[in-house]
Design a protein that fits this description.
The chain is mostly beta strands and 640 residues long. The protein contains two helices and 52 strands.
Length: 640
């Protein structure tokens, strides 16, 4: 099982891009490698390793990510870190060892190279032990200073050290010393091996302090290339060998050719490589080459056009790469790119993230999103988006990609919880539910930006702290208000508020529960999801209230009493998002079908549901965005 990672993200990008995708108004996939900067997420290590750099990533066969910083080894399961060593049968002080590299063998054990020997994490015992040289000099490494490790296609482990190349048979724990020699040079007894790579033909490239060797596994038919000091080797999906050097730029050799080509930084050419010190090289799922540079960030090479696109740290952009000294690049099995930096920060990027453009508040940038956090979004008939949040209201025009910041000085400053436009009437008004000193409901003219009506809910509803949490319109004159004090019916013309406290079929007082969400179905009836009172159905004709509650004795009941989102699909099926998964309401049986993480959801907390194409729909969760295929009952997840 592959474990995926995410970070919870509630931002404008999801709802804006999703709105465009559903309505067909625009294409949400903008290739950020070309037009927009890459948007990275950042992962913080559990302890302060600010003085240490990332020296390696590895995703093992169980899906865990292994991260080493030179002074620590971490195992990451997508949510939590385990710091190694733990429960060792030997004492290891990694600070004195300087971890340099890692590889997994075919049995799932992790081999760890350091500047003070070779170590093995044994999966069966969950312990790390030192490599045992029981057979004396014959089975000893040529040097305890290990620079690189490679597992080849034949399951063997190659170990490059400060004094030569070693071949490890993991079955027998035996070492063979591999001496490099060439007809054109004298026999070399000692070499500093800096990296090893295997191409698709089963041949090996070995970088040393003397140059670059090309050989078969027996050590015969060796070719030697004189290249500058080599820091990294990488064979891409086209069997092209790429060579990162310290000061001589990026070399590469095409399959079937005998000579190397070179990319070097040209100050007069902004599309050339950004620097000549190349620390690490990797390839993404689209075949683009990622080059980690020392001091100039990440370069991404389009191999056909030979154009380099530069991605550097921007102190004003928290989504930029965290540091310009890139130490390690790695692609996992979900095609996520992991980036290690000199300051031990972990950055990660996935192409799925680039299908969503991020809009956020950037201090000092008046053109960015004005509000600090997004609570509610509503689209008007002209296609403009109204966004309410922590410190005000923004209007966004997708056609111009510009924001208009509407000052909270028009009303009492506070947090805008709800932004709503009545779909039953073609007027120019917008309703705002504001959490401030008086807990207000405001009717705002969208053209003049003037307040038309203002209601003090503390006074009108006879409760202190009666904030509006959700609004739905029954018709042009009636609004239904969900509050944290219950459900209210508002007649707009008379400005009267009526609490809904009708006796329900299930003995339950709706007015005592916080309303999280309201939904009007195709028959015009009102559904409400509450914090503790389950799912409630209000029949407008009979004025009966039916409450659906969780019961531990009924596996077909609502999965939990906290309901966060509701949607009716084109077939009239009702879908209910809760804090314990997705529920499908079966109307003729009045029971529920449950979906949860075990069925493929990224998380069981469903905070929002929106319709998509072909009767499918989208859900926002605490651990990413999920697209649900109703026919296949399958989930496609996007992690942030």
């Amino acid at each position: 099982m592959v474990l995926f990672f995410h970070r919870a993200l509630l931002t404008f990008l999801v709802l804006l891009s999703l709105s465009n995708f559903i309505s067909g108004k625009g294409e949400i996939h903008q290739n950020s490698v070309g037009k927009f900067p890459l948007q990275f997420e950042n992962l913080s290590l559990p302890d302060d390793m600010s003085q240490s750099r990332i020296t390696g990533f590895l995703q093992d066969s169980s899906g865990f990510m292994w991260i080493c910083t030179g002074e620590r080894i971490y195992r990451f399961d997508g949510y939590d870190f385990i710091v190694f060593p733990k429960d060792f049968n030997i004492h290891i002080n990694w600070t004195n060892y300087n971890i340099t590299c890692m590889v997994e063998d075919h049995k799932g054990n992790i081999w760890i190279g350091t500047e003070n020997g070779l170590y093995q994490y044994q999966r069966e015992t969950d312990k790390i032990k030192a490599f045992n040289s029981e057979n004396g000099e014959k089975n000893a490494l040529t040097s305890e200073v290990i620079n690189c490790i490679l597992r080849d296609k034949n399951k063997r482990i190659w170990i490059g050290t400060m004094e030569g190349l070693n071949l490890l048979d993991p079955e027998q724990n035996q070492i063979l010393r591999f001496k490099l020699e060439s007809k054109s040079i004298q026999k070399i007894n000692k070499e500093i091996i800096t990296d090893i790579s295997e191409d698709s033909n089963g041949k090996y490239w070995v970088a040393t302090n003397k140059g670059l060797y090309y050989s078969n596994s027996e050590g015969s038919d060796i070719q030697f290339f004189q290249i500058g000091k080599i820091k990294d080797l990488f064979v891409d999906s086209e069997n092209i060998l790429w060579v990162g050097t310290e000061g001589a730029g990026l070399y590469y050799i095409l399959p079937g050719t005998t000579g190397f080509l070179n990319h070097q930084h040209e100050p007069s050419d902004p599309q050339s490589i950004s620097g000549n010190i190349i620390n690490h090289i990797c390839e993404d799922s689209q075949g683009r080459l990622w080059i980690g540079c020392q001091g100039t960030g990440i370069d991404i090479l389009n191999k056909k056009s030979k154009i380099f696109v530069h991605h550097r740290h921007d102190p004003l952009d928290p989504k930029s790469v965290s540091h310009n000294a890139i130490t390690f690049l790695y692609r996992d099995r979900s095609s996520t790119m992991w980036v290690g930096t000199q300051d031990s920060n972990i950055n990660f990027w996935n192409s799925c993230l680039q299908k969503f453009r991020l809009y956020q508040n950037i201090p000092g940038d008046d053109m960015s999103l004005g509000i600090l956090s997004v609570n509610s979004i509503c689209e008007d008939s002209a296609g403009k988006l109204w966004i309410g949040g922590f410190n005000g209201l923004d209007r966004f025009d997708p056609s111009t990609d510009q924001f208009l910041h509407i000052s909270g000085k028009i009303w009492h400053p506070g947090i805008i919880r709800v932004v709503y436009i009545n779909p039953h009437i073609q007027d120019n008004h917008i309703w705002l539910g504001i959490e401030n000193a008086t807990y207000e409901l405001i009717k705002l003219d969208r053209t003049s930006m003037k307040v038309v009506d203002k209601f003090d809910l503390n006074t009108l509803l006879n409760f202190n702290g009666s904030r509006v949490t959700t609004i739905v319109a029954e018709n042009e004159n009636i609004l239904w208000l969900g509050t944290d004090r219950g459900l209210y019916k508002m007649e707009i013309k008379t400005s009267t508020f009526t609490p809904i406290q009708t006796q329900s079929i299930v003995i339950h007082n709706l007015g005592e529960n916080q309303i999280n969400v309201l939904y009007q179905d195709r028959d015009g009836n009102i559904w409400s999801g509450t914090k503790q009172g389950g799912l409630n159905y209000y029949d407008l004709k009979t004025q009966n209230l039916i409450c659906y509650l969780y019961s531990q004795n009924d596996i077909n009941s609502l999965s939990i009493n906290e309901v966060l989102s509701i949607m009716e699909d084109q077939q009239g099926r009702l879908w209910v998002g809760t804090s314990r998964g997705l529920n499908q309401f079966v109307k003729n049986k009045r029971n529920f079908i449950h979906y949860s993480k075990k069925n493929g959801l990224p998380d069981n907390t469903i905070t929002g549901i929106l319709p998509g194409l072909n009767q499918n729909f989208w859900m926002s969760t605490k651990r990413g965005l999920s697209h649900f295929n109703i026919d296949k009952k399958s989930f496609r997840n996007f992690y942030f």
